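Archive maintenance. Older records in this collection stored only the sequence; we are now back-filling the structure field for every entry so that each record is complete. The fields below show one back-filled record exactly as it appears after the update. Entries are processed alphabetically, and Short-chain dehydrogenase/reductase is next in the queue.

ARCHIVE ENTRY
Title: Short-chain dehydrogenase/reductase
Organism field: Camelina sativa
Length field: 316
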Amino acid sequence: MTNKEKARERREKRMQEISLLRTIPYSDHTRWWSCENVAVVTGSNRGIGLEIARQLAGHGLTVILTARNVDAGLEAVKSLRDQEQGLKIDFHQLDVTDASSIREFGCWIKQTFGRLDILVNNAGVNYNLGSDNSVEFAETVISTNYLGTKNMTKAMIPLMRPSPHGARIVNVSSRLGRVNGRRNRLANVELRDQLSNPDLLTEELIDRTVSDFINQVKEGTWESGGWPQTFTDYSMSKLAVNAYTRLLAKELSRRGEEEKIYVNSFCPGWVKTAMTGYVGNMPPEDAADTGVWLSLVLSEEAVTGKFFAERREINF
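Back-filled structure field:
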């Protein structure tokens, strides 16, 4: 058996394990939430986001499904309600690239629910499929995947409910954005070291890194800039999300016990959704599992500032 075949066999075995884990209900002694707890899932009218919303609602939380397009969002809510009676799901329009849309959404959350307990930053875009590696829409990709996640998070943190269980922020990311991955990593060793060192990592460094990339895209010099070579713009956006996850976790760790917020990112894998042209090897039901698990895991078991795939911690 070749190494590639062995890797495929391990992956298929792990997917079977994830499918089994999803069938095991959370026991009463681990259940800290009720229908009074509110979860917001961005970009959740289809794909992984829709499945995360469905599973969280299935566990008994009140879930706010969001989408840029109102008709698409309302149709998604209707489809979930038709599939399963009794789900507490609401909808509100949200464009994470629009500051006014984020502000309006925050006001609505405060007026309607008072607080939220879980934020899943799922909204994202990718314009490359297969072997394509165009950077034509690099600014949109960075604006949506990284800046949208960051701006949405900053706006929602003041609204997160103080609790001994801790509020949760879960960022949907990708292995393609690993700083120190064996493949597809930054060529600049000094920059990799800075982004990997918690003492050197700052929001300014992350922003400057993506800004340098965008500037090189505009100048037409990005191919010689030492950026990731696969899905370059998408990889850079997720590298920034991963770095921001670690930075934010460090900042939030200074909060008191009653105001804890746990923040982690996870890679759902290569999923059969519109973003991959439906050629992925994992169904959305399994891909959503780690995000749901990170949203619900008990506080004494919870970690923060980590990167996960298939419920296992992996390196940034």
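Update note: Residues 185 and 228 are 5 Å apart (CA to CA). The chain has a mean pLDDT of 91.
Entry marked complete.
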